[in-house]
Structure formats: C-alpha cells, structure tokens
Amino acid sequence: TPVKEPRLLILNEALASELGLDAEAMRQRAAVFAGNELPSGAKPLAQAYAGHQFGNFTGLGDGRALLLGEQITPECRRFDIQLKGAGPTPFSRGGDGRAAIGPMLREYVISEAMHALGIPTTRSLAVAATGEAVFRKQGLLPGAVLTRVAASHIRVGTFQWAAAHQDLAALRVLTEHTLERHYPELLGAENPALSLLEAALKRQASLIARWMQVGFIHGVMNTDNVALSGETIDYGPCAFMDEYDPKTTFSSIDRRGRYAFGNQPQIAQWNAARLAEALLPILHPDEKKALELANGLIEKFADFFQHDWLTVMRAKLGLFTTEAEDRSLIQDLLNWMQAKKADYTLTFAALTKGHLESNEWQTRWQQRLSRQTQSRDEAVALMR
Ligand code: AMP
Ligand code: MG
C-alpha cells in the first residue's frame, strides 16, 4: 500500500553489501523501502501462521508485514527480505498494518546490536519514514516501514497452522522445506520430523542461553515469534536487563510476568513442546509411539539448555575449564547480584577489572581461576 512521502531514515550499508546489493543505489530507493515500488522480481505475500499468544491458541499471520522475496548473497546464502509496517493484509484483524518510527528504529538498533554480539538474529536493512501518521495509545505518531532480513520467516506457528488444519501433506512439505533451508545436513534422515524437532530444540536452547548470557529479555515469546532458523525474531517490548532480577519484565502487556527474564528457558521448552505437538501426526504412524518420541526430546530440552548456559556463563567468568562446582559458583554470584540489586552487565564488566566489592565469592572465583593454566589476561579477554 503506497504511502504519502517515502523518506529513507537509515540504511545498513554493510548489510546491503553482504546481501550483494548496491548500497549506493539503495540510497536512492526510498520508494522501495516504503513499499511504494517493488524491486524487480518481487511477488509480495503475507504468510499465514497460528500461534499460542500468552498461552492461548489463535490463528494469525503477517498482519503488517509483506515478504518481498528471497535474496541470494554472493556467498550463495538465501535470505528473506520483508517489509514490516507495509499496510493491511488479510491477516490484519482490525489493525492498521502500520508501524511507528520509534519501534522500527528500536528493532533496527537492537537486532543489529544482537548481531554484533554474535547472537543469531534477523537483521535490519533500512527504516523508511512514510510521511503518514499512525494512531497509537500515545496519540498520533509518525509512521515508518522496516526492511527486515531473515534466514526465513518459518515459525513454530507456521507448523501449528498446518497442524490445526490437519493438513499432513502441508506438514511434510514444510518439514522438508525447513530441513532444506536450515538443516541441510539432516536431509534424507530416516525420520525427518524427529530430526527436525531435535535440531530445532537444540538451536532454541542455544539461542536462549545466549539471551541469558547478555541479559536479553525478548518480552513476547509467543510461538508465532519463535523462528525455526534459531534466530531471534520479532523485536517488540524487548530490552536488556539492568539490575539483576529474574522476575524482570519490560512489556506492559505481560502483567503476570510470563515472559520474565528468568522464565525464558521454561517458556522456550513450552514452545518446543508446541512444535512437537504440531509435528506429532508425522512423527510416527502410531500415536502412542509418536508421543513417546516427542516427550523424550522435550525432556532433553532442559539438558540442552543447561549445557549451553553453563558454557556461556563460564566464559563470562573467564573459565576455560569445567568443574562440577561451576554451576553453584555462577548461581551464587547471581544471588549476590540480586540481593545487592547490582547491574547485570556492569557487574561482569567490573569483574574484568577486578573491581567487585571484595567478598567471599570473589575469593572463591580467584581460586577457581588459579586452578586453570590460562593467564589472567587470557581470562579477561574471554570475559570481554
Ligand atoms: P507480535 O506479537 O508483535 O509479533 O504480533 C502479533 C500479531 O499481531 C501478528 O500476527 C502481527 O502481524 C499482528 N500485528 C501487530 N501489529 C499490527 C498492526 N499494526 N496491524 C495489523 N496487525 C498487526
Ligand atoms: Mg510476531
């Protein structure tokens, strides 16, 4: 849906080059980034999906986003390019299909920060102002369109959509397609659905461990906001935690703290169970056997996560080796931070400088560091 006055607010030139696009030429294409003109070869579409929103199952779909198409990079990697805030679609459910400048610049900044931190995420190519206003609870706000780049937009909710329609053929095609796109090493597996489930669970566990490592709170971990690629997707009321408290939330709509910082691993497991549920009909012809297979994997999620979490948290403490006591060493520091209302990131930054208020924990940590052969400088480099 064309907008009044397209104006490019920000262009990610580095990403444009990675994608094999001419950054200089892109600067002149505000009309494309606002959705007024289509890039050649684009056949825009809104994707259908379902999802559990705050625990309730519902039909959804791209209500304000349009997939322009796929871009193949000079390195032969395939990406979705999507406009977010491009106008109403058949899935808008009474919404305006639009977005305000603030949240779109926010998604741009935070997704690029996540990428810079080495955390799997969708990227942001551009934000274009529309010259039109959108009406939100704060009043009239200037509108914008975000150009998002993703490994794909296949969500847990995409599988739930197919399962809800009891469309086994669609489930099988979707499974094959997802394997092909994100887990090509698993193509030809004896049980494709089971292989996909296990691989996707592992990627989610590893992603959530990275979130926990940097204090990231997604804010809306609905199953429609979980990507099978293992990328962080759909930046809404997300934030990085300041004072350490597992109960921290930033989303005003998350009144019960379902998606609080400390709940993220359990919620990820719950979402994984919803993916397993959707895949049940193609996991095994015998329903009981299918359930057994699914449950076996879901139970393993906690182990996958704990393993990845310990790995990334050890790094934050400069630990190259593993000891049985590491979990309690990490947990005791977290407990201390919570009691002291200490800033999560700044506490770890202080540790790199040896600044932490001297206490019993500090002594334990120093002793732990001295039991590895790596030097203090090497430990600090790892922590940083
Ligand atoms: P979210 O949880 O923010 O990812 O969005 C949940 C659902 O609401 C998705 O299906 C979105 O496409 C839809 N949605 C969000 N904002 C709008 C809007 N302004 N107009 C139409 N649909 C929207
Ligand atoms: Mg979403």
Overview of the structural elements:
By secondary structure, the chain is α+β, with helices and mostly antiparallel strands. It has helices spanning 13-18, 23-27, 30-33, 101-116, 156-164, 168-182, 192-214, 264-283, 287-316, 326-340, 344-352, 360-370, 376-383, and strands at residues 7-11, 50-53, 56-59, 65-72, 78-84, 123-136, 139-150, 216-217, 239-240. Helix 7 (192-214) packs parallel to helix 9 (287-316). The structure holds adenosine monophosphate and magnesium ion. Residues 60-64, 91-92, 95-98, 220, 222, 225, 234, 236 line the site of adenosine monophosphate (AMP).
The ordered string of helix (H) and strand (E) elements is EHHHEEEEHEEHHHEEHHHHHH
Largest sheet properties = 5 strands, antiparallel
- Put simply, the count of helices is 13
Helix content range of the residues, please? 40-55%
Kindly state the mean pLDDT as a whole number? Answer: 96
The global form is globular
Spans with pLDDT under 50 lasting ≥5 residues? none
What is the end-to-end distance?
A: 46 Å
Strand order of the largest sheet: 1-6-7-5-4
Alpha-carbon Rg, integer: 22 Å
In terms of DSSP E residues, the strand content is 15-25%
Bound molecules: adenosine monophosphate, magnesium ion
According to DSSP, the number of beta strands is 9
Structural category: alpha+beta
